[in-house]
Write a structure and sequence with these properties.
- With 487 residues, this protein is α/β, with parallel strands linked by helices.
- It has two domains: 141 residues, no CATH class; 287 residues, no CATH class.
- The chain contains four helices and 35 strands.
- The strands form four sheets. It has a 19-stranded parallel sheet that branches. Strands 1, 2, 3, 4, 5, 6, 34 and 35 form an eight-stranded antiparallel sheet that branches. It has a six-stranded parallel sheet with strand order 15-12-9-32-29-27, with no helix packed on it.
- The longest helix has 67 residues.
């Protein structure tokens, strides 16, 4: 007997299993789809975060690089002491003299433009523009800078950016003044114009022959230095890289008169040093605070102790004169020493006007016996004996010497310097001529002729003369670095 009715219930159970499998498959499909979407969203979000982090990093890098660039420019520029408008002075220095001849005007950093003051600020490259830092990498990192002032401080804010122009970072630093080094004091004779020697004259370093070096910063004359005198113990340097130096056939330069070796002592295209700003105020203040305050010159007076010679006095000291402390010559004046002159101190002029070799003259025709300010009695002259390093500061005057002047304990600064006849002496400092005479078609800024000999016993930059200032650069003020809101 067969039991067929016992086999029929199996079919529905198989159908139920097939339905359950479909449901599970759909559930897994939904689950995997959800996971896939989640993974996609997560990957997309991670990629977006990475791009944002990259944009922020590039913006930060741009700001840091821009600040380092501005820091370099602030260190290289030269700002005059006590400028009437600091922001304008900064703009001028950044544009044309940071360093000299390598200013920002017309460069790619400025997008070809010039540094100007706009709305009481300086914008690099301009108010609404950016400067690319490195386009060669394919990543457009960029910066822009805003410079303002607060008192004697300079405040620099730098924005940095990358390819995403909406992402920016900004940092700010405050800068303070830093006195510039007087590199010009490393030369024995330095002139803004041309230098020429003739006859049996020589320029000699006292204990170190290299101290008898000569520099011309003239950029007009084709031959800024002409040496036809007997010798120059040091090297010859010119700022103009395209100029030539003329040396006589029998002249010794750097210890040799071998024409094949002399070029080793000639230097072209040297960095232009900063010529000093002259300020007689420290001497005047010290004199007026002493027991012997400044008095006005009386015609016929031959002993001058802290004396002022008023404008247009034009005195001639034919029988000798003694100068104690400070002799202040006010412009214009022609002061002549025909007899022997004894200088126990310093001779200074005011800085009124500009160079005038006709109406502003100081002429030494006899022997000059000089003693430094340190020999003055502090009980009489107060702090004046502490103001060392200068002998003659007359930036707008033509100074001539035709007699011996022994040893002068300090630098000589004048508009032009002319030594002739048998003028001989030792300068315990440097001889600096401030006026570029070549551009005016007149004689050399420094001219030595006859048997005039000048011995240089310079202390270089180790001893800055009183009354000279070489301007300021700017250096970051510690503790002022902050991140700020981009402008």
């Amino acid at each position: 007997m067969t039991h067929k009715h016992n086999q029929r219930p199996a079919a529905p159970r198989r159908t139920a299993r097939r339905g359950l499998s479909s449901v599970l498959a759909m559930l897994f499909l939904v689950l995997f789809s959800t996971l896939a979407i989640g993974f996609y969203n997560s990957s997309t979000m991670s990629s977006q975060i990475a791009r944002n982090q990259q944009s922020l990093a590039l913006a930060q890098a741009g700001a840091e690089a821009g600040m380092q660039y501005m820091r370099y420019q602030f260190n290289q520029m030269t700002i005059p002491p006590n400028p009437p408008n600091l922001l304008n002075s900064v703009a001028t220095a950044l544009g044309s003299a940071a360093p000299a001849g390598l200013g920002l005007n017309g460069t790619s950093v400025m997008n070809g433009g010039s540094v100007t003051v706009t709305n009481n600020a300086i914008y690099i490259p301009s108010q609404n523009a950016w400067s690319n830092i490195d386009s060669t990498t394919g990543i457009s990192t960029k910066f822009r800078a805003m410079i303002t002032t607060s008192g004697q401080f300079v405040i620099c804010t730098v924005d940095g950016g990358g390819p995403n122009s909406t992402v920016k970072k900004a940092i700010q630093l405050k800068y303070q003044t830093a006195p510039k080094a007087g590199a010009i004091l490393n030369y024995g004779v330095a002139a803004a114009g041309t230098v020429a020697t003739a006859g049996a004259s020589y320029i000699q370093g006292a204990s170190d022959p290299t101290k008898g070096s000569v520099l011309s910063a003239d950029m007009t004359s084709a031959t800024p230095i002409t040496v036809d005198g007997k010798a120059v113990s040091g090297d010859l340097s010119v700022v103009n890289p395209n100029a030539t130096i003329s040396v006589g056939a029998s002249t010794s330069i750097g210890g040799t008169n071998n024409p094949t070796q002399i070029p080793q002592h000639e230097h072209y295209g040297v960095p232009a040093p900063t010529f000093p700003w002259i300020d007689p105020t420290p001497f005047i203040n010290a004199a007026n605070a002493s027991a012997t305050p400044m008095t006005t010159y009386v015609p016929g007076q031959t002993t001058l102790s802290n004396v002022i010679i008023p404008p247009n006095t034009n005195p001639k000291f034919t029988g000798g004169a003694t100068i104690n402390g400070v002799l202040l010559i006010q412009t214009p004046n022609v002061v002549t020493f025909k007899g022997n002159a004894t200088v126990n101190g310093v001779i200074v002029t005011d800085t009124t006007g500009s160079y005038d070799g006709v109406n502003n003259q100081i002429n030494f025709g006899g022997t000059v016996t000089a003693s430094p300010v340190t020999t003055l009695n502090p009980a009489v002259y107060g702090t004046l004996p502490q103001l060392t390093g200068s002998f003659l500061l007359a930036p707008n005057y033509a100074v001539s010497m035709t007699g011996n002047f022994g040893t002068v304990s300090g630098s000589v600064v004048a508009g032009t310097v002319n030594m002739s006849g048998n003028a001989t002496g030792t300068v315990d400092g440097s001889v600096i001529a401030m006026y570029d005479s070549a551009g005016a078609g007149t004689a050399s800024s420094v001219y030595l002729n006859g048997s005039s000999d000048i011995v240089i016993s310079s202390t270089g930059t180790s001893n800055y003369p009183t009354g000279m200032n070489f301007g300021n650069s700017y250096t970051p003020l510690p503790g002022t670095y902050v991140e700020v809101t981009p402008w």
